[in-house]
Design brief:
This protein is mainly α. The chain has 14 helices and no strands. The protein is globular and about 45 Å long.
């Protein structure tokens, strides 16, 4: 299971870093097969965006304080204002919902984002999720519940929260050794916001590429990542498919990377994909520390 936990966290960073240079580009206008540089934020090879930076903030908070919303927000603010865990000297690629929620927290101290309207159902809370599931890997109910709770600091709409809970369930099952067809059967039995019913019904199994959206909407991102995962048979093949969807390529890559990394495990991810990622050793060590802390704290309960 540790192998899969490490795969989920480093997979997040790999997908993020591979997709970062082609973020916002139109599908079909480029073809990427390996790390490159450039893009809107002029990233260097292996530099990740907000997805991995916020995941590291979340993991760091879990290691220091357990599950504590205030500390999570304080740590996100350190990223936003001081560049904590950024791949550059400062934070960049900050989503508007994240920015507004963190700004509101700084002004008012609200632990739950006030942006509850469904129009604020972006993918900013599913992109960073893996640390929560790794920490709660011994308890399915806790993993799903706290996946949803972790969303609320920045993305409190019912769709965003339930997207995080669904992804949390999927990651938990794969980290704990479930097979692809087993997870397909399991998600059909889950009950979430109606907007997620297509995904839980397996919409990604029969859609063609031109029917898959890779926007910043949480449901689009999750469906796109699952489409790439279920239509390929290796971490790398699905990864390439994910980032070449374009648009919000770094986050589709990050969500795919979490799912595929949890399924295939670190041993089945080529070193050529791991080594270039900035701070990859920190990421792998954090995954191990989260796994061990969760094992020690919750296996005795």
């Amino acid at each position: 299971m540790l192998n899969r936990a490490k795969g989920a966290f480093v997979g997040l960073a790999i997908g993020d870093a591979l997709g970062a240079p082609v973020q916002f580009k139109k599908r079909g206008s480029f073809k990427i097969t390996y790390y490159t540089s450039g893009g809107r934020y002029k990233v260097k090879v292996g530099e990740y965006t907000d997805d991995t930076a916020m995941a590291l903030c979340l993991g760091d908070s879990l290691l220091r304080k357990g599950f504590d919303l205030k500390d999570q927000l304080d740590t996100y603010l350190k990223w936003l204002e001081d560049g904590l865990f950024s791949s550059k000297h400062k934070a960049f690629d900050i989503g508007q919902t994240v920015f507004r929620s963190l700004s509101n927290y700084k002004r008012k101290g609200d632990l739950i984002s006030p942006l509850r309207n469904e129009k604020f159902s972006g993918n900013g809370s599913i992109m960073r999720l893996a640390p929560v599931v790794i920490y709660f890997h011994t308890d399915f109910e806790k993993a799903v519940f706290y996946s949803g709770e972790s969303s609320k600091t920045t993305h409190s709409s019912p769709i965003a929260v339930d997207s995080a809970k669904l992804l949390g369930a999927i990651l938990w099952w794969f980290i704990n050794g479930s097979k692809k067809d087993e997870v397909l059967a399991k998600i059909q039995k889950l009950s979430f916001h109606p907007a997620l019913s297509d995904i839980t019904g397996g919409s990604f199994l029969h859609k063609k590429e031109d029917e898959i959206k890779s926007s910043g909407y949480a449901i689009d991102t999750l469906e796109a990542a699952l489409w790439c995962f279920y239509n390929t048979n290796s971490f790398e093949k699905g990864l390439i498919k994910a980032v070449n969807l374009g648009d919000d390529a770094d986050t589709v890559g990050a969500v795919y990377g979490q799912i595929a990394g949890a399924y295939y495990g670190i041993d089945n991810i080529d070193e050529k994909l791991i080594r270039p990622v900035k701070n990859h050793e920190l990421i792998l060590q954090m995954a191990e520390n989260l796994y061990k802390k969760g094992l020690n704290e919750f296996s005795k309960q």
